[in-house]
Write a structure and sequence with these properties.
With 130 residues, the protein is mainly α. 59% of the residues lie in helices and 0% in strands. It contains four helices and no strands. It has helices at 18-28, 32-38, 52-93, 111-127. The longest helix has 42 residues, at 52-93. The protein starts with 17 loop residues before the first helix and ends with a helix.
């Protein structure tokens, strides 16, 4: 005779499916934490002797929990990404300290014009020599 604690909610009492039976029992009373501890996320936990409906319930609960965990991970990654972007924007907004930069004063004339003026002055100076 089989132990009654091994019996599944569908009536299966195969001892090889004890872990699946424990998961289904926890799910029946909405104890998700207990189901996870019993092996809800472990794909090897199943009972081939349970009814199709019972196995489908276990499969659906496992798929829903995996999807929820993936969504939670995506949410955490998104929150971290948004925090990083906000930090980068804040760093860009901080103005760099003003440093004294000595810039050369630009010449009033471009270099070509200054050279032409110098030649003209030299030519004029030679004309006025005694």
């Amino acid at each position: 005779m089989h132990d009654a604690s091994n019996a599944c909610v569908c009536g299966c009492d195969d001892p090889r499916g004890a872990a699946a039976h424990a998961v289904n029992a926890a799910l029946r009373v909405d104890d998700v934490d207990g189901a996870i501890e019993a092996g809800l996320l472990d794909r090897d936990v199943e009972c081939t002797h349970c009814s199709d409906e019972c196995r489908a319930r276990l499969h659906d609960a496992r798929a829903a929990r995996v999807a929820a965990l993936a969504a939670r991970e995506r949410y955490r990654a998104r929150a971290a990404r948004l925090e990083r972007r906000a930090r980068e924007r804040a760093e860009k907004r901080v103005s760099p300290p003003v440093t004294a930069v000595v810039t050369p004063t630009p010449s009033a004339l471009p270099s070509a014009a200054a050279a032409a003026l110098a030649r003209a002055r030299e030519k004029a100076a030679q004309r006025h020599k005694p």
